[in-house]
Amino acid sequence: MLTIALSKGRILNQTLPLLKKAGLEIANEELNSRKLILDTNLDDVKVIIIRATDVPVFVQHGAADIGIAGKDVLLEHGANGLFELLDLGIAKCKLMVAATSDKQLEQNILKVATKYVNSARNYFESKGQSCEVIKLYGAMELAPVVGLSHCIVDLVDTGNTLKANGLIPLDHIENISSRLVVNSASFKTKNLQIKNWVEAIEDNL
C-alpha cells in the first residue's frame, strides 16, 4: 500500500488534476466526506489530506510514503528523513523580505515578523545581519505599520496586499512552488512503485 499526503487548500486544487493525468483519481464523495484516509481508484494507493505544515512531518515519520507541499513549508521543516524529488511547478510565489522602505533594514538588530522563523533567521544570518524574529500566524503586513517589527518575511504572489498596506518587496529569499517529497525509507523499500509514480506525474507536467 502506498500512502500519499496532500496539502489542503490551493495546493490540493492544483494537485488533483496532475494526479488524475498520472492515473490517480479521488471521487468527489471521498473528497467531501469526513474521512481522514481517502480511497482512490487504485486499490494499492490511499490519500490523506492534511494541513500543509503537517505534510513533511507525516512523510518524515513514515505515516505517508509520498507528500506534496510548498517549498516554504519544506524549508521550515528541514530535510530530515525525506527526499525532495520533483518540482511540480504549481502554487508559485516568492518568499520575500518586505518593509515600508529599504531604510528599515538598516538596523543593528533587525526585528523581523514572520511565520517562517527558520527561513528568516537563516537568511539574515547568511548576510551577517543580527535579527530578532517575532513569530506571527497572520496579519503579517500589520507588524511594520504599527511598529512591532522593522520588516516582514512572507510569501508574495501579486504584491497587491503589500501595496495596500504601504509595504514594498525588497529582498528575494526563495522561489516557492509545490514539491513532491518521499520518505527516505520508503524510497528504498518501495523504490519501483514510487519511481513509477514520480515518472508518471513528471511526464504530465
Please characterize this protein's 3D structure.
- There is one protein chain.
- The protein is of the alpha/beta class and 205 residues long.
- It folds into two domains: 2-91 and 177-203, D-Maltodextrin-Binding Protein, domain 2 (3-Layer(aba) Sandwich); 93-176, 3-Layer(aba) Sandwich (D-Maltodextrin-Binding Protein, domain 2), CATH 3.40.190.
- The chain has nine helices and eleven strands.
- The protein has helices spanning 10-21, 28-31, 55-60, 71-77, 117-126, 142-145, 160-164, 184-189, 191-203; strands at residues 2-7, 37-39, 45-50, 66-70, 82-87, 93-99, 110-114, 131-135, 151-156, 168-176, 178-183.
- The two termini are 25 Å apart.
What characteristics describe this protein?
elongated; alpha/beta; five-stranded mixed β-sheet; 2 domains; D-Maltodextrin-Binding Protein, domain 2; 205 residues; 9 helices
